[in-house]
Write a structure and sequence with these properties.
2 domains; single chain; 7-stranded parallel beta sheet; 352 residues; TIM Barrel; DNA polymerase, domain 1; alpha/beta
């Protein structure tokens, strides 16, 4: 799989909306400030909402800057794209992009998909179609959509009703993106007693269930260990997400690791066939290297995921690949190196 964004070498010059969105992709990938990304994505949305007559009129008058949300930089991109050229700024961003985590290139070449992503149905910034279309453009064979569960209200978590609606949307979109596969999923909260924050009958229908702790991260060691063991032993759970909950950098500040008995938790993961997530987000780098090595020594499987909340973040897998390579993780133990049919067979065995 490619390691430096979508392959643009053989593509014609993009139209204005596509050019604006691709700029947003490269800015997200490079971890630029959110306001910069939003400027280009907002301009793309504004342009996409205009009718053909208004587009023709504004193009003839070169009046893009009269639209609220279109500034001089985004207007220049629109003008250059309409002229049939690759906008200069887009060309610069493409040229400046280098592979993420080159030391993990051998691992990345083995990956076939991503099992932890978010859309604007919860706390992601982009529609499902854009997230999944980007995943396909990056060379993924499949990608799981795992929006949050209802307890995480700050992230607009999905009630059972909203999750059912999302499944209908995915079913409609699936045919458009075939043979790429959208895997249905959820990042379900591990509740205080280790139970899961979604209806069991719904969890049973999903392709991928990632279970993560998002609340009471400072619970004492015994409590946290018990919560996590109950969760990974649940027959519906396939992946234990960002197990320590730590934050090591970024706009949300830093946060220490949760305290739990890693040997007991990882033994439960091994015994019940739940993969330990290698979370590729730069601000998480979870689990820490010492725990990643421990999980490997104990015979756990792994899922190497981006936890992407925006299209450009889907290319962050390289960060996790470099960490996996540094810790000597055998790619054969990473479940998203499997072809989709074998992956779904694994989730059936591991998750019930």
């Amino acid at each position: 799989m490619a390691g430096a964004g979508p392959d643009t070498t053989a593509q014609p010059a993009p139209g204005p909306v596509a050019a604006l969105r691709e700029i947003g992709f490269w800015l997200e990938r490079a971890r630029e400030q959110t306001y910069r990304v939003k400027a280009y994505r907002r301009a793309a949305d504004i342009l996409a909402a205009l009718g053909d007559d208004e587009l023709d009129r504004r193009r003839a008058a070169n009046s893009w800057r009269e639209l609220a949300g279109i500034g001089p930089k985004t207007a220049t991109v629109i003008e250059e794209a309409y002229a049939g050229r690759v906008p200069r700024y887009l060309s610069e961003l493409r040229a400046a992009a280098t592979p993420i985590g080159p030391d993990g290139a051998a691992v990345r070449q083995r990956l076939r998909g991503d099992l932890h992503t978010h859309s604007d149905w919860s706390d992601g910034g982009s529609p499902i179609a854009e997230m999944m279309g980007c995943a396909a453009a990056l060379g993924h064979e499949y990608c799981a959509l795992t929006d949050h569960s209802p307890r995480l209200t700050v992230a607009n978590g999905l009630s059972a009703q909203r999750l059912r609606q999302q499944l209908e949307v995915i079913a409609e979109l699936a045919a458009e993106l075939a043979p790429f596969r959208i895997l249905t999923g959820i990042e379900v909260d591990i509740l205080d007693d280790g139970s899961l924050d979604q209806d069991a009958e719904l969890l049973e229908q999903l392709d991928i269930v990632v279970a993560s702790v998002h609340s009471r991260l400072r619970d004492d060691r015994d409590t946290m260990t018990r919560r996590m063991v109950y969760a990974v032993a649940n027959p519906h759970v396939d992946v234990l997400g960002h197990c320590t909950g730590r934050l090591v950098e970024g706009g949300r500040g830093t946060r220490p690791e949760s305290d739990f008995d890693a040997e007991i938790v990882f033994e439960a993961c091994r015994r019940y066939g739940t993969a330990v997530e290698i979370n590729s987000r730069p601000e998480r780098r979870d689990p820490p290297s010492r725990l990643l090595r421990l999980a490997d020594e104990m015979g756990c499987d792994f899922a190497l995921d981006t936890d992407a909340h925006a299209p450009g973040q889907l290319d962050w897998q390289g960060y996790g690949c470099a960490r996996a390579a540094a810790c000597g993780i055998d790619p054969g133990r990473i479940v998203n190196t499997l072809p989709v049919d074998e992956l779904l067979e694994w989730t059936h065995i591991s998750g019930g």
